Amino acid sequence: MTDNPYRTLPPTHFWRNGVAETSPLNLQDIYQKRWPLAAKTKIATAGSCFAQHISRFLRTNGYNVLDLETAPEGLPAHLHNQFGYSMYSARYGNIYTVRQLLQLAQEAISGTVREDIIWEKSGRFYDALRPNIEPNGFATPEEVIAHRLAHIRAVRQMFKEMDVFVFTLGLTEAWEHTETGVVYPTAPGTIAGQFDPDLYGFKNFKLYEIRSDLVQFMNIVKKFRGSMFRTLLTVSPVPLTATASGKHVLQASTYSKSVLRAVAGQLYDEFPSIDYFPSYEIVTNPAARGIFFASNLRSVTSEGVDVVMRSFFAEHPALTTQTPSAKPTVPPATGQGAGPAPSAADEVQCEEAMLEAFAK
Amino acid sequence: MTRTVLIGNSHLAALKQALEARRARDPETDLHIDTFGAHLNNFLETRLENGTIIPTTDRVKRVFEFTADGKSAIRLDEYDQLFAFMAVSPYYLPGYFPSFLVSPVSDTLLDQICRSWRELPLVNMIADIALACPDLQVSFVGQPFISESAPKARRMIYQALANPVDPTKLSAMRLRIKEMLQELVPSNMSVCHPPQACLDATGLFTLNEFSRGSQRLAETEIEHPEHDFVHMNADYGEAILSEIVFP
Questions:
Q1: A332 interfacial to chain B (CB closer than 8 Å)
Q2: A139 — contact with chain B (CB < 8 Å)?
Q3: Which DSSP helix (H) or strand (E) runs through B8?
Q4: Whose CA is closest to A75, among B122, B99, B101, B123?
Q5: Rounded to an integer, what distance in angstroms lies between the CA atom of residue A97 and that of residue A108?
Q6: Which of A77, A84, A180 is nearest to A130 (CA)?
Q7: Torsion angle (degrees, nearest 10) of CA B199, B203, B204, B205
Q8: For the purposes of burial, counting CB atoms within 10 Å of the CB of A74, is it exposed (0-12), middle (13-18) or buried (19 or more)?
Q9: What ipTM was estimated for this complex?
Q10: Is A123 touching B (CB cutoff 8 A)?
Q11: From first to last of its 247 residues, what are the pLDDT tens digits of chain B?
Q12: CA distance to partner chain A, nearest, from residue B76 (Å)
């Protein structure tokens, strides 16, 4: 019998040892995997902007990351992301909320596409559920639908094939079509479409809603494919660009991340098929004193991504001899107009960051 | 008599074989045609100087001499027309589709792929030749479409059976590509589509019969292995000669 339940705890369970007196570049035991990822494990990735880093690092380090909508051969690698390719396991673009994920799964499993997801801008037509995958939209509304049909076929196949689903939880805030409940990755009017307060409403998902959506997602996909799959959750450390909650963005961002973190923690406790990887904690670690954020205090630097992924690979070792580098490989620039290679902080395609343009 | 030069990489071999067959049938007729080859992308190991293409490496010089009966440089003023048989053809439509599904392609994506094709180093080189020699008619033929028997082709054909592609959409793509190419290449350069008679019913792949018995562009003439689905034979070369080079 001990005189105090804390006496036998390991050092990392104490703030002084685990955080205050430990280098933020080398957090010990911050992550202990729940189950291994093997070379043959088929991994599907999705989530908010930060998820692109995870997807890329997994691929670069030899993991079997699915890509059911590979880019055309004729499109050079440095243009893939611009057209929504090579970001995730299918061409869905960023999925910021769990409701958006559930919506996608319901659509893919049903095999039918809603026709009310078309936004217009300057005579071109955009898929409102992934408005950034075509830089100039589509020529006709019919094309939007045809492309989306092909896309959800790929997503169906992804759900069938995957062994592990890696999802980065990004936001609780979203805009929805008030009548139908369709949730969008960006507010109408940001990339395309027009904001009409009679049609669209702000939604800040609550903890129980997010939890319920994620459980429902797992259930319907499991039922569809006839077998269980594992899910690796992480919370994006990237704060909100802007909030429509009526509160200060710092408060709103903290709320969002707290709710998402709580959902991830609850589900981790309830479901052995769910693992949680602490990207959020690593980047926002007070001991790091913000060094993992770029000057905008929002984008995560290459060094920050590197530290995150080193913690990941400490438990899931790289399957190639290549170790995670500070900067992802950037293909050489070709043709005219090619500027300097972007940093990792700039390299993700992020519709949410576009909201910055609306700041006064 | 029109003076013609054919340049290319391994895909030039089909033309060489066809020319040799023609010469064997009719040794008295001078075809006024020269061929200069270099493997893979090695034509990039040349420089264009005062209207002459000069190898900058020994390996290219050697292959030039082998393929051009001893000539080691291409004096472009000796020719009226030049045909290039290297680099992917912009009319190869599978290059516009995602690998796993024959799914629709947006106009923006198609235009971008055409522009990206124009920026390929070999295409750039050929366009530079056209720009430097405005009196020379330059025709880009490129490499053949892969054989219908290639595993990748079989996969796409299977996918197309499950999700048929509207042939009018493919025609519209070809038309748009043609329009784009007219904007992208110099005025004395044209981009040729492979002969329809060599292609399968979809127009996406080369008929299997043209990929059997293809030979290497090498110092000793060797056949490509059976699983080579990208190089074509003398019959293909003859079709090109008949329809494109000597129409």
A1: no
A2: yes
A3: strand B4-8
A4: B99
A5: 17
A6: A84
A7: -10
A8: buried
A9: 0.89
A10: no
A11: 899 999 999 999 999 999 999 999 998 888 899 999 998 899 999 999 999 999 999 999 999 999 999 999 999 999 999 999 999 999 999 999 875 556 788 999 999 999 999 999 999 999 999 999 999 999 999 999 999 999 988 888 887 777 777 788 889 999 999 999 999 999 999 999 999 999 998 899 999 999 987 777 665 456 667 778 889 999 999 999 999 999 8
A12: 26
Contacts of A113 in chain B (CB under 8 A): none
Eight-class DSSP state of B147 = B
The pTM of this model reads: 0.89
Which pair of tokens denotes residue B198? 């060599």
Helix/strand/coil for B52: strand
Q: State both tokens at A120.
A: 């217009």
CA nearest A336 in B: which residue? Answer: B119
Task: Give the pair of three-digit tokens for residue A257.
Answer: 């991340």
d(CA B241, CA B192): 12
How many angstroms separate the CA atoms of A172 and A182, rounded?
Answer: 15
- Close Cβ partners of A245 (under 8 Å, ≥ 6 residues apart): A173, A202, A204, A252, A255
Angle, helices A249-270 vs A207-225, to 10°: value is 40
| C-beta atoms of B106 and A335 within 8 A | no
Interface test with A, best of B44, B101, B165, B180 (most A CBs within 10 A): B101
Identity (one letter) of the amino acid at A56?
R
φ, ψ at A143 (rounded to 5°): -65, -40
- Token output for A24: 């933020």
Cite the DSSP H helix spans in chain A: 15, 51-60, 98-110, 141-161, 207-225, 249-270, 279-284, 302-315, 344-347
